[in-house]
Design a protein that fits this description.
alpha/beta, two-stranded antiparallel ribbon, 11 helices, globular
C-alpha cells in the first residue's frame, strides 16, 4: 500500500503503444514533444478543468528527481524546506540528500481527517525557509484540499516569500463526490512562485516508466529550472512519453472512471481497513 503499486494492468492503449514502439525496432530519442504536451494539456482540461500552456510544461525523470532539480534550481545548501507531516517519505530523503534543512509541520488530526496548522507552522519558522512542498491530494493522509485551504496556503507563501511546490501526482485518484482543484486554478495569484508536478504513474500504475511533468507558469522560474536541468543532463524516458500520450485519451479517462467506482465500492464494503482516513477523498 505504501508503495502505491496497484494490482491492475494499465489501459490496453498503453500496452499497445509500448508494444508498437518495441516492434517497429527503432528505439531512439523521442521526437513528438508537441504531441506529448498536447496530450497533457487535454487531460488536465478534461479531468481538472484547467489547461496549462505548452511552454509551461517540462518533462522530468520522475517527480522525486524533479523535486531534487527544483531544490537545486531555487534554493541553496542549508535553506529550509517545509513539508506537512506525515507525508510521503521520499520528500524527506531528497531534502536531506540535497543538504537542505527539513522543517516538518505536523498536521492536526480531527475526526479522522488531517488539517494544515499554519498558525503553528508560523511559530516554528526560523526565517531561513525558502520553500513549501505540498502533497495535493495528500499522501498518506488522503486529503483532497478544499479551495479555501489552498488559498490560505497560497496567501501564507506570499506573506512569507516562500516558493510553493505542489506535488499533484494523485490528482486523478479522487473518490466520487470529491473534486481535486489544481493549485494554479485555486490560487492564480501565486503563479509567480508556483511549481506544479503531475504524472500518470499513480493514476495508471506506470511508476516504472519514471516520467513526470513539472508545470511552471512564471517565466523567470522556468528559466532557472531549465538551466538546472540542462546543467545536470537530465532527460526523461522516451518510452514513458509514448505511454503517457497513450494513457491520456478518452479510453484512459473511462478506465480511471471504472477504477474509482471499483475503489469506492471497496471503500464502502471494508470501512475498517480505511479507518482514520474514511472522510478524506483519495482512493
Amino acid at each position: 500500500m505504501g508503495i502505491a503499486d496497484m494490482s491492475f494492468k494499465p489501459p490496453q492503449e498503453v500496452l499497445e503503444a509500448l508494444s508498437r514502439e518495441i516492434q517497429q525496432g527503432f528505439l531512439g530519442y523521442y521526437g513528438g514533444i508537441s504531441h506529448y504536451k498536447d496530450a497533457v494539456k487535454r487531460w488536465m482540461n478534461r479531468m481538472h478543468s484547467w489547461e496549462p500552456k505548452s511552454e509551461w510544461i517540462y518533462t522530468a525523470h520522475g517527480l522525486v528527481a524533479a523535486l531534487g532539480t527544483v531544490m537545486r534550481a531555487y534554493t541553496n545548501v542549508g535553506d529550509g524546506i517545509i513539508v506537512f507531516s506525515p507525508v510521503y517519505h521520499s520528500f524527506k530523503k531528497i531534502i536531506n540528500a540535497n543538504k537542505r534543512k527539513l522543517l516538518q509541520s505536523p498536521m492536526v488530526l480531527k475526526a479522522g481527517k488531517y488539517f494544515l496548522d499554519l498558525n503553528q507552522l508560523e511559530i516554528m519558522m526560523t526565517g531561513n525557509e525558502r520553500m513549501i512542498i505540498l502533497c495535493s491530494p495528500h499522501n498518506p493522509g488522503g486529503r483532497v484540499w478544499s479551495l479555501n485551504e489552498q488559498k490560505e496556503l497560497a496567501y501564507f507563501c506570499r506573506r512569507h516569500n516562500l516558493l510553493l511546490v505542489v506535488d499533484e501526482i494523485h490528482n486523478d485518484l479522487v473518490m466520487p463526490n470529491y473534486k481535486h482543484i489544481p493549485m494554479a486554478l485555486a490560487a492564480p495569484e501565486v503563479e509567480d512562485r508556483l511549481i506544479m508536478m503531475t504524472s500518470t504513474t499513480k493514476t495508471f500504475n506506470l511508476a516504472g516508466m519514471h516520467t513526470g511533468n513539472v508545470i511552471i507558469p512564471n517565466e523567470t522560474l522556468r528559466e532557472k529550472f531549465n538551466k538546472t536541468m540542462v546543467s545536470y543532463g537530465i532527460s526523461p524516458n522516451s518510452f514513458g512519453k509514448h505511454m503517457v500520450a497513450a494513457a491520456y485519451c478518452q479510453e484512459g479517462a473511462d478506465w480511471v472512471d471504472a477504477l474509482m467506482i471499483y475503489l469506492s465500492l471497496i471503500h464502502i464494503s471494508e470501512p475498517t481497513r480505511r479507518r482514520g482516513i474514511s472522510d478524506s477523498g483519495v482512493g
